[in-house]
Design goal:
Elements (H helix, E strand, L loop, with lengths): L1 E5 L5 H11 L10 H12 L5 E7 L2 E11 L1 H9 L1 H14 L8 H16 L10 E12 L8 H15 L4 E7 L3 H9 L3 E5 L3 E7 L1
Parallel strand pairs: 4-5
Antiparallel strand pairs: 1-2, 2-3, 3-4, 5-7, 6-7
Helix pairs in contact: 1-2, 2-3, 3-5
């Protein structure tokens, strides 16, 4: 039986495992399971964010995360800066190729981490707010894909947005990720703009 619900704290480790397995070639996964769990914990603890999970027979098989600000990300960088730095340092000297994929974006996040670390007082964190709510991350275990599970999870996510009075949601996707682009179009997202390496979508709920 498939069930969709808001995540609880006990789900975070399972979410981190799914993230690493399904996004193994993405930058965040390089940090390892514990730090990825901390990343999602930062978002979970901010009440304006929405973290939804999908269960099958009471086991977590997918998740979707939405946010309207960079506060949680900056908090994650600030509180875990030393661990992130040393992890990246070790992976760099191991020759981890993932660190060099989209290096300009990686430098942006590293710069943001340094800025967050230098801001010693919590109220100095910028709390940048997007013009629309953003779908930040979505994943379903590979072996559980099909039967519109991801589509129904995104639909449940949008219902939760409406309950908060949010009627517009956006996202970005790597330009050559045709599978994701097709999925978002199926969910009713329209292209907002295109850049060299990414496509931005927007959806009226």
């Amino acid at each position: 039986m498939i069930n969709y619900r808001l995540a609880i704290r006990d789900d975070l480790e399972k979410i981190a495992k799914i993230h690493i397995n399904e996004f193994s070639e993405y930058f965040l996964s390089v940090l390892g399971e514990k730090l990825v769990c901390k990343f999602y914990e930062s978002y979970y603890e901010e009440t304006d964010n929405i973290l939804v999970i999908t269960e099958k027979d009471e086991k977590v098989i997918g998740f979707i995360l939405g946010t309207q600000s960079s506060l949680a990300r900056e908090k994650f960088f600030k509180e875990n800066f030393n661990k992130i730095f040393w992890k990246l340092f070790k992976e760099f000297f191991k020759g981890n190729k993932i660190l060099w994929i989209g290096i300009s974006r990686r430098l942006f996040f590293i710069k943001e981490a340094i800025i967050a670390k230098l801001h010693k007082k919590k109220n100095l964190i910028s709390q940048k707010v997007s013009s629309s709510y953003r779908l930040l991350s979505i994943a379903i275990k590979r072996e559980e894909r099909g039967d519109n599970v991801a589509y129904q999870m995104e639909n449940f996510f949008c219902k939760k947005l409406l309950e908060k009075g949010i009627r517009k949601v956006g996202l970005s996707v790597i330009k050559d990720n045709e599978r994701a682009i097709s999925f978002y179009k199926k969910c009713g997202y329209d292209i907002e703009k295109k850049e060299d390496d990414a496509i931005y979508f927007i959806k009226d709920i």
